[in-house]
């Protein structure tokens, strides 16, 4: 397990989000990305909660933002170095953003995420 301070971890998440291609970032809509520093569901590194873009209809208007939560302790627990944490944060952010775009776990695994 590697210990990364909360501020440093949030910078990693922000950098991972900044690494998303502009054309995809511009399509992201009504989604908030947060970091949970302690706890979280067992076995999860990140979690998307909401209505994927591919399933939104006219009735979606006025909905609260979707949420992507990145779990700091869980990610740090599976990594042996800070460089591994950076890479795992990037992979987790991309995976959860994929869910926002309506891509399921099986397809994300096929794509390497």
UniProtKB/TrEMBL annotation:
UniProt xrefs under InterPro entries: Zincin_1 (IPR010428), Zincin_1_sf (IPR038555)
For this protein, the record's SUPFAM superfamilies field holds: Metalloproteases ('zincins'), catalytic domain
Tell me where on the tree of life, at the top rank, the source sits.
Bacteria
Q: Write the protein's name.
A: Metallopeptidase family protein
Recorded source organism is: Nocardioides iriomotensis
